[in-house]
Amino acid sequence: MVREIAYDCDVLVIGGGIVGLSTAYAITRAAPGTRVTVLEKEAGPARHQTGRNSGVIHSGIYYRPGSLKARFAARGAAEMVKFCAEYDIAHAVTGKLIVATERDELPRLHALVQRGRENGIPVRELGAPQIEEYEPEVRGLAAIHVSTTGVCDYAAVARHLANASGARIRYGTKAAYIDRRPDLGVAVRTDDGTVVRARVLVNCAGLHCDGIARLAGDEPNMRIVPFRGEYYTLARPDLVRGLVYPVPDPAFPFLGVHLTLGIDGSVHVGPNAVPALAREGYDWRTVRPRELGSTLAWPGSWQIARRHWRYGTGELHRSLSKAAFTRAVRRLLPAITSDDLIPTPAGVRAQAVLRDGTLVDDFLIQEGPRTVHVLNAPSPAATASLPIGREVAQRALKALAGAA
Hints:
The strands form three sheets. Strands 5, 6, 7, 13, 14, 15, 16, 17 and 18 form a nine-stranded mixed β-sheet that branches. Strand 1, helix 1 (18-30) and strand 2 (36-40) form a beta-alpha-beta unit. The protein is α+β, with helices and mostly antiparallel strands. Helix 1 (18-30) packs parallel to helix 5 (154-164) and helix 9 packs across helix 10. The chain has helices at residues 18-30, 68-86, 106-118, 128-134, 154-164, 209-215, 289-297, 299-307, 309-320, 322-330, 385-403, and strands spanning 9-14, 36-40, 56-57, 91-92, 96-100, 123-127, 142-146, 150-152, 168-171, 175-181, 185-190, 195-203, 223-234, 243-246, 258-261, 267-270, 274-275, 341-353, 364-368, 371-376. The protein is built from eleven helices and 20 strands.
């Protein structure tokens, strides 16, 4: 006898950030009539990574050729600009400089030129005098100009995706328990005691994605280790015309303290990268012992500390000392003073870490019976959110077809 299940939806998406909402949007466009529900524990969309980043539309220059990041960022940047223009969402294509300030950075800068060309991204190499043509106050030995970089209002993008998706979106609703039956579907009990039954579950929970995967009965073989990025705004925004970045250290997925002229005319300075003491630990005062204990219990966390303690010590010093942070910024912008830096809200990066301490460098999407888990989607996920959404939607619809 076949059991008849009254499903509340065909696909249930957990997470109302830009990736979850882009997935819902892509599903309903690829398969009209598919019933999609989105559960978001906050009172509105884009309250965490999406709404707390610097708003940069990344070109894709940094990422390994052939990787999901390289493919989706380059494609996503062009699509994001078009999307914002079509729906009258604030954006600007500003271009950016990546500046070498020390001689040992010059080989890495040249490697970025090569990588940009491999990824099909237009790059112009600049000598020291040419830097001033773009940024009169910035100093460096050499730089590259990437014309396709821009900025936009990602929170507004997320709101539009939510409104246009056709999905039923339940804000203020947290997934508390998941019962996944490969032969029947997925039932999610929420924190208010209601049950949502779906044929397929998509996990776009960001900072909590590993926990959702385990609730669903899948072992993701990674853990999210949260890194807080602390920002300042520049009291003298006229010092910067566009976007200015240092040469990144290839050993880390972080881009270093940079200067970003936002769509509102303000200039963000940051972020650094320090361990957060909670998944949503936006300051040092926010400590959640259970979440911190989970991070410390993961062997990969200790491997990171052992391998990269010098780098981490420097980041902590810049977090606790405004003077140290100012010195880091002055490498790019000598005119800046400590008084120019005004504290502004921080963000937290959901960084997937493997058991051996490897920082997962690419987007990571895994599948299980009736489930699709997005397990690593930090920057440039906002830039790449439209193609990521289509990729996840394709996998969810394939699972849905298999469950029919």
